[in-house]
């Protein structure tokens, strides 16, 4: 069910990350968030040059690429058996599968995109969460561990 979304991300995500990193050139830190809503109707990308993601909702930088919206809406609409308006094992399972797809695609971003913009992969903290909803903190906790190396988590003070 997520294969089409994954394929589109594989093709288009590196270009979006390159756009963000071009704007971040010269910065020491850059956190990039994939933000969705409670019913998973798409993502937008947000980023900031701080080393904290605690106030991601107040960041002024964002992109709304189409490939992170419509394909995900199609998946949600096909999952009629999941009540996306209330917390449940099924909804959290959906979130975990979605995070796995993002993890795979983030890890496939070519190292050259980081290098040509003056970064190492480990300099960038990736995460995902909801702008509002049932699993805000759970998604942050799971995604930061999935998307980043221990070196990155340490740099951003997220090692436990």
How would you describe this structure to a colleague?
With 160 residues, this protein is α+β, with helices and mostly antiparallel strands. The chain has one domain. The protein contains six helices and four strands, in the order H-E-E-E-H-H-H-E-H-H. The protein has helices spanning 3-24, 70-78, 89-107, 111-115, 136-147, 150-155, and strands at 30-36, 43-48, 61-63, 124-130. Strands 3-2-1-4 form a four-stranded mixed β-sheet. A hairpin with a 6-residue loop joins strand 1 (30-36) and strand 2. It is globular, with a radius of gyration of 15 Å. The mean pLDDT is 94.
Write a short abstract of this structure.
By secondary structure, this protein is α+β, with helices and mostly antiparallel strands.
């Amino acid at each position: 069910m997520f294969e089409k979304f994954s394929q589109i991300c594989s093709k288009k995500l590196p270009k979006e990350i390159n756009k963000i990193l071009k704007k971040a050139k010269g910065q020491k830190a850059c956190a990039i968030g994939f933000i969705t809503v409670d019913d998973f109707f798409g993502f937008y990308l947000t980023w900031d040059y701080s080393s904290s993601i605690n106030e991601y909702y107040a960041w002024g930088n964002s992109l709304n690429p189409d490939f992170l919206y419509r394909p995900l809406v199609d998946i949600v609409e096909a999952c009629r058996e999941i009540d996306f308006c209330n917390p449940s094992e099924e909804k959290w399972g959906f979130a975990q599968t979605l995070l796995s797809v993002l993890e795979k695609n983030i890890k496939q971003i070519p190292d050259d995109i980081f290098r040509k913009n003056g970064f190492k992969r480990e300099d960038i903290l990736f995460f995902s969460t909801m702008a509002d909803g049932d699993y805000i903190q759970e998604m942050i906790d799971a995604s930061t561990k999935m998307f980043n190396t221990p070196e990155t988590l340490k740099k951003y003070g997220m090692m436990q």
